[in-house]
Amino acid sequence: MFLIMCQESWGLLLQSAPFVLLGLIMAGLLKAFVPPAMVLAHLGQGRVWSVIKATLVGIPLPLCSCGVLPTAVSLGKQGANRGAVAAFLIATPETGVDSIAASLALLDPLLALARPVAALASAMAAGLTENFWYWQPPVQLSPQPRPIPMTLPPRPLSLHQRLLQGLRYALGEVWSDIAVWFLCGLLIAGVISALLPAGLLANTLGGGLAPMLLMLAAGIPLYICATASTPVAAALILKGLSPGAALVFLLVGPATNLASLTLLWNLWGGAATLRYLAVLSGMALLCGLALDACYQGLGLTAAALVGQSAEFIPSWLEHFSALLLLACSIKPLAMHLRRLSQRFNQEA
Question: What pTM, to 2 d.p., does this model score?
Answer without folding.
Answer: 0.71
